[in-house]
Design goal:
The chain contains 4 helices and 4 strands, in the order ββββαααα. A hairpin with a 7-residue loop joins β3 and β4. It has about 100 residues and is mainly alpha-helical. The radius of gyration is 23 Å and the shape is elongated. The strands form 2 sheets. Strands 1-2 form a two-stranded antiparallel ribbon. The chain has a two-stranded antiparallel sheet with strand order 3-4. The longest helix is centred in the C-terminal third of the chain and has 25 residues. The chain folds into 2 domains: about 40 residues, no CATH class; about 40 residues.
Amino acid sequence: MKICNKCHIAKSYAKFSVNNDAKDHYHYFCKECTRSYTRDYYQKNKDKIIKSNREWQQRNFKYMQEYQKIYREKHKEYFTQYQKIYRKKSNNRIRYKSILK
């Protein structure tokens, strides 16, 4: 059992994320408190976070292109299956919309 430093409730170690820098190798806050803190932080700093993410994407555009290309090549079977399913669903939607007109 470990006590969360935020909510001060004793919880099992399964309720804490792993942190190799901590003495007992678990985070100081439980997963629930960490989740609520992260959600609140994002809501308060949403514009700043979005701006920062966009800037990173612009700076690393070539890297992301190369990474996505390699990822798609490694998982080619998954993407072909996904595309087949998507096309089948899309065609049904398109046909249904044309019938309604």
